[in-house]
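Holo prediction. Input below; ligand is zinc ion.
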Amino acid sequence: MALSPDLLAILVCPACKGDLEHDPQAQTLTCHRCRLRYRIVDGIPVMLIGEAEKF
Ligand SMILES: [Zn+2]
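Structure of the complex:
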């Protein structure tokens, strides 16, 4: 399921409130400032710092 562009436009990193990079192939949202990667599950971004993957 694709992430809606409207939703994508308002999403920010919950840790720093910065912009996120959307990767539609990997189904992730990446914050380069925090070096955290948030997953998108069934079209719903999991915007929880505890659930994010560090890279
Ligand atoms: Zn961040």
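The chain is about 10% helix and 30% strand. That is the main takeaway for now.
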